[in-house]
Design goal:
- The chain folds into 2 domains: 156 residues, Rossmann fold; 73 residues, 2-Layer Sandwich (Alpha-Beta Plaits), CATH 3.30.70.1020.
- It is of the alpha/beta class.
- The chain has 8 helices and 11 strands.
- Helices cover 38% and strands 21% of the residues.
- The structure holds ligand L263DTV3.
- The site of the ligand O=P(O)(O)OC[C@H]1O[C@H](O[C@H]2O[C@H](CO)[C@@H](O)[C@H](O)[C@H]2O)[C@H](O)[C@@H](O)[C@@H]1O has 23 residues, from strand 6 and strand 8.
- Ligand L263DTV3 binds next to strand 6 and strand 8.
Length: 243
């Protein structure tokens, strides 16, 4: 990986994009309690302060939720709802379509004790982390997936099934942001299935470093074991980029 960091040090502009939950914040039962790791705010600000470097959070969360839960604001960029929502706004037709989806899925969730429906700007998320009856949890996720229309995109995650009302993904989002910035170097970190779209989109791009956090098959170039590994990698990256 040190060759990747040396290569990135010589490129500008550089986009450093990271997934949020499971990468910069530990997974918790209650999504609102998944705050940044202690080391993350200062380290992310160091990176964002390096010349020609933009730091973006790319999440399944809505942008407002991502700002509130992370506690971050300027100069960071935010991409929410798995790439369907940017920090410059959301199409009203997308919100209307989301409301129809809520009407279809809410009764399914209400029928399973411990399950929760999270309503996001361009998606709903069926959460089953706190469902004690695991077969009921699995059955709920299947029923919710079946309720999705052909124009929706179902995205399984960790104890969650997201149903998005657009076909945007983190891959198209990170490429769009990189293009907007004219980025010559791109770093992307992620831990979940939806991050694979970003790893794949960047696979053949010169100056791209993709990092998988934790176990599981991946298209990422390198892997770190956990959030402490994320911290160590971002420390090295900040030093290489002069932050
Ligand atoms: O793309 P990410 O930043 O990884 O966001 C993915 C989903 O993260 C949140 O759910 C996950 O984290 C929760 C808090 O730790 C946890 O309770 C849940 O089981 C996880 O699936 C968030 O609530 C979703 O909106 C995001 O899409």
């Amino acid at each position: 990986m040190s060759a990747d960091l040396t290569d990135l040090a010589n490129r500008r502009p550089v986009l450093v994009a990271s997934d949020y939950d499971g990468v910069l914040a530990r997974l918790r039962d209650v999504p609102g309690e998944a705050v940044l790791e202690d080391w993350a705010p200062d380290l992310l600000r160091r990176l964002a302060g390096a010349e020609g470097v933009t730091v973006a959070l790319v999440s399944g969360r809505g942008v407002d939720d991502l700002r509130t839960t992370s506690g971050l604001g300027e100069p960071f960029r935010f991409v929410g709802s798995h790439g369907a929502e940017y920090d410059d706004g959301l199409d009203p037709a997308v919100a209307a379509e989301r409301d129809l989806l809520v009407d279809a899925v809410q009764p399914l969730v209400d029928a399973v004790p411990g399950a929760r429906l999270e309503v996001k700007p361009a998606a709903v998320a069926v959460h089953v982390r706190t469902v004690a009856d695991r077969p009921a949890a699995a059955a709920l996720l299947e029923r919710a997936a079946a309720a999705a229309g052909p124009h929706h995109t179902a995205k399984p995650g960790k104890d969650v099934l997201e149903i998005a009302v657009t076909d945007a993904d983190k891959g198209t989002a990170v490429l769009r942001l990189a293009e907007q910035l004219g980025a010559d170097g791109v770093v992307y970190l992620g831990d979940d299935v939806t991050d694979e779209d970003a790893f794949t989109a960047l696979a053949d791009r010169p100056g791209a470093l993709t990092v998988k956090v934790g176990d599981g098959d991946t298209a990422a170039r390198v892997r770190v074991a956990d959030l402490d590994g994320v911290r160590d990698l971002l420390e090295e990256l900040a030093a290489a980029l002069g932050g």
